[in-house]
Every structure is written in structure tokens, then in C-alpha cells.
Amino acid sequence: MTPDNIQSLQHEQRLFTPPAAKRAHIPDMATYEEHYRRADQDPEGYWADRAKELLSWSKPWDKVMDCDFNIPKINWFVNGKLNVSYNCLDRHVENGLGDKTAIIWQGEPEEDVRHISYRELLADVVRFANILKKLGVGRGDRVALYMPMVPELAVAMLACTRIGATHSIVFAGFSAASLMNRIQDCEAKVLVTADAVLRAGKKIPLKGNVDDALTDCPTVTSCVVLKRAGIDINMVEGRDLWWHDVVADPNIAPTCPCEPMDSEDLLFILYTSGSTGKPKGVMHTTGGYLTYAAHSTQLVFNLHDDDIHFCTADIGWITGHTYIVYGPLALGVTSVMFEGVPSYPDPSRFWQLVEKFKITSFYTAPTAIRALMRDGSEWTKKNDLSSLRVLGSVGEPINPEAWMWYHENIGKSNLPVVDTWWQTETGGILISALPFATPLKPGSATRPLPGVHARIVDAEGNPTTANEGGHLIIERPWPGMLRGVFGDPERFKQQYFDRFPGKYEAGDGARQDEDGYFWIMGRLDDVINVSGHRLGTAEIESALVSHPAVAEAAVVGMPHEIKGQAIYAYVTLRADADESDELIKALRNHVRKEIGPLASPEVIQFTVGLPKTRSGKIMRRVLRKITSGSTALEDFGDTSTLADPSVIQDLIAGRHN
Ligand code: PRX
User: In angstroms, rounded to a whole number, what is the distance separating the alpha carbons of residues 434 and 439?
Assistant: First the structure.
């Protein structure tokens, strides 16, 4: 092992056989292996079949792929033509599915529910596409969307795709400055927004941020504003238009042809903030992205025509793009879109929705699972969850205990929990169990999907042996991968392809066990070096979370005279546990017993909250600063993606020196 590698200390051994399913796309491991082999030996044939089975193309491609990671150059379905709006709407209506529900929308207030059929959604999209055209938006132009989780957001996205415009969605929790930077970077022509966001019983103004952002966005000529909350806002004459006014215009044509797009035309830009530097505008294109979205949605959630799929993410993140809108709608299934939060008015909100809409697949994030776990399992027992077939997790490593809690309380010890590893850049899920085929190990994303060549390599790029931690890389192109960083080809190359020439570098640490299962160990930027042993954050945090008093934990390195670095742990307790010195001792012993003395935290600080990004990921970068003694907010770098900046002061106040 080279010293640069990450050492694994985890001993998770539990194994769960997947339940049998009457209709599984991939019913067993032999079928999975067969698909994997086919995609390995004949990638062009495999992906051509998938692209033809899943999508309608107005012109076939000349060549399935033309890619070279050394340049990098990535092209899929070369010269093929298709339209995303046609694939997600028109063709389903043409196939007799017009009355089928495309989107079940649950607003934040319980009584706000809409069942929108494919025909209705198509009509709304056609209308809004014509409005965008009237506002001067054409093929290749960018449209920024800064909206709550309302059906109009999906309408605006699909309207862009219909006319060949590129959307750039900015999560509605971001500040005016973040919105401004993103609009300036992509030079959007139109912005679509709302007066306010409804969240946990409150109205959070949005339009004020827009007004601030647009003070310095000269490319934006119009701003369409949806009235969601009915608060007073400022409308700028000549720039701002109410959504309800523009859609009521009697002169809008009832039809709008679908622009035939090249497979490699830009479909959307989505900004992702790395730990340093300005956010990267990740570019996804038309044919490859949609193929991969439909393919991965179908296989990972085992979706069939009558399924009701609920992904709890916000559409402002890639998870919402792929698994609320594009994947489910391309497949013609029913997708649930939820405006609220898991804990309001009480922690049974998700489960009420499962019962109410007879949801069959449910996809959420470890941060939500841990929060619900902290509130206690009694909240999971009030509703009928018997419609559920598949449970999924995404966004961070899922601690084995959180996986078990999800499996036992929501899955009633019977449903498969698929832990799905992927990134904004990958467009869709790359590593995940297939729910009715893969034997499950809590905390492992298991095996790559067919067509995905994931490997773990050491610092020199050589393959690691079983259980040896290293860098997660993807060796070959897949259709859903990013095509670039908007306006910055050098950054694209340097960020993903320079370190391991000819390979895609994910930036995550991981290991593969003796069965070939992948275990993600955390971001490589977060690795802690204790006495020369490089430890990933995920295993230590999972060991803490496996103690019955702990709901959530985050670990970072702190300077230590002898060890170089020691482990500083921030711990949130479950609702029924109390802080005490005995508990600190017990937690240290617990970690020692679970994974070894090396990982035993030097310091444990109890906290009511952890600094998280607005998508729910723990920001260890901020914790490192707090641990090292910083008190000034300026020291914390870019905190604009922090969900609740007030936790910083609490953490500083509770710091152990
Ligand atoms: O570190 C990995 C973590 O989230 C990163 C990607 O974040 P983002 O681009 O925001 O996309 C999130 C939704 C796909 C990865 O580099 N991550 C995501 N899923 C998992 C995960 N870490 C461990 N296990 C996962 N299932």
C-alpha cells in the first residue's frame, strides 16, 4: 500500500438477500452479470439498444460514441436528432397515455394537491414554450429558473427543451449573490421565478433576491414571476411579468413544434460548488443524458407503467432533474413532486404521502433519514406503507445504522434499500444495487450499473487490492456524463482527467471488498491523517452513528503533537439521549471496539446541529476551520451554500480547546 492510500477499519458483515419480485427488469445476479458482460464487450451495441428501446429519435445516429478521455472529447449518438419534450410528453399522449398522471404535486399546505395528466402537462409546456419564444428566447439561449417546488418549474424546464433553449436552475434557497453569479456566468436571457417559497409554515420571499441579483445582470431582458404565496413584491416595469398574465394571453398559439435537437446540443447547465473556487457550470447534453436518465431510473427503481415514484430531492439539484423530471417522464410513469419538508407539520409527513398516493418507490437522502431517526421510529408507525416496493438513498455515504433503520422501519425488514452513488457530473446513478437482484450490505453502494467501469486506484493509478482504500475512478465513458464546464474547458480537463490520464476522477475515496462491492469512504479532501494512517470520514462517523444514543456525527482532523492529526468529532444525539461525560467515554470506547483504537476521537463535542449545504451534505471544511480555532466568519471561505449559518456560532461556543 502506498502511503497516499486510505486505510479501511470497517467490519460491516451483514448481508441481506433481495426479495423476489414478480416483474423485475433485472431479476437476479445472473441477469445482471449478463447485462454487465454485454455492455463491457459490446458497449456500442448495448447503448444503441438502450437508446432505441427507451427513446424516440427523429433521426438515427451515425455512430454510437466518439469519446477520448485523453483530450477529453465526449460525444454520444453522433448526429442523432431528438427532442426531450417530445420524449417526455408528446409520444406518451400519442401512445394513448394522455389521461395518465404525469405529476402528482403535493404542495406545502396539505390541501394543495394536483394530479397533472400527460395531456395537461403537454398543453402547459406548449403554452409556456410559446411564451418563451415571444420573449425572444430561441435555440441555444439560456433561461435561468429560480423557483419553488411547483409544477410550473417542470413546465418551464420542458418548455426550454421543446424550443432548444438551455435551462440553468438555481436552487431557490440560494442567495441573491449566488443567483447573480450563476446568471452572469451563463448569460441567461430570461429568468423565471416566484414571489416566495412556502417552507415549514412560513413564506420565504424570493423576488427580493431576484431584484438584487438583476441589478447587475444585463443579459436578462425579462423576468416571469409566478404568484405562489401572494406576498407583496416589487414588479419592475418593462422587465417583470406575472406568470398568470402571460399564460392568459389569448394570442398564444395552442401548438408549438418540437425543435429537432442534435444529440450533443446543450440540454442544461447546473452549477455545483466544489470545496474551493467558483461554482462549476456542469454541462449535460440531450441524447446521452436522456438515455442514461431513463435507463438508470428504470433499472435502479425497477419502474413499470403503474409505478408511483417519489424522489424527495429539490429539482434545484441534479437528483431532482434526473429522478423527478427527466427519468420518470421519459419512461411515462407517475412522478410525485413535493413542495414541503420531511418534518413539518410533523415527522410523519413523508409517510402520510406514501399512504395517500400509494407510492411504490421512495428515494431520499441520508440527512433526512438521520433526522427522522433522531425524532424516533414512532412517527413511522402511523401510516400504511404497504404500497412501497423499493427504497433508495443518495447524496452522502449512508451509515450502516441509518440503512438498518430505513430498512426496518420503512421497509418493514422486507424491502430492498438501494444506496446509489453518483454526482452532478455523472448525470445519473453509476453505482447501486439493483433492488431485486443484488444481495445488500448496509452502507455499501454495491456494484456498478451495466456499462459503468468503476475502479479503485492508488495515487499512481494502479489498481488496489481488496479492501484497500484509494481513488474512485471511472475508466470508460457513459452516455450521461458531463460534457464540460460552461465557459471553462481547461477546468473541465484539469478537474476530472488530469490526475489519472485517460480516466474520469470522481474525487471520492472508496474501497472494493472481496465481493467487488464498493464502499464510499468520503471526499478525498476530507481525509484525516492519524499517525500516518489516512482515514476516510465515513467509517468513523458510521461507527459513532451505530451507538444507540447518536443520530448524526461529523469528524475532522485537529492538529496533534504526536499523531500529526487527531480526530475531533461533532455529535448530534437522538431525541431521547442526554449529554454527559459518561456518554463521551462510552462513545470513545464504542468506536475503539467497532473499528479500532486508531479511530477513537480525541475530542467529542455535542451539538444540536451540523453545518450542512443546502442539499444536506455535511460541510467538513467549515468544521475544520472551527476546530482549528477560527472565530471570524471571513475565515470560513464561501459559506453561501450553508443551509443555516447560525450553527457556526453555536459550534464555536461549544468548542473544546
Ligand atoms: O461524495 C459523493 C457524495 O456526493 C458527491 C456528489 O454530490 P452532488 O454532485 O451534489 O450530487 C449529489 C447527488 C448525486 C459524491 O462525489 N455521494 C453521493 N451519493 C453518495 C455519495 N457518497 C456516498 N454514497 C452515496 N450513495
Answer: 9
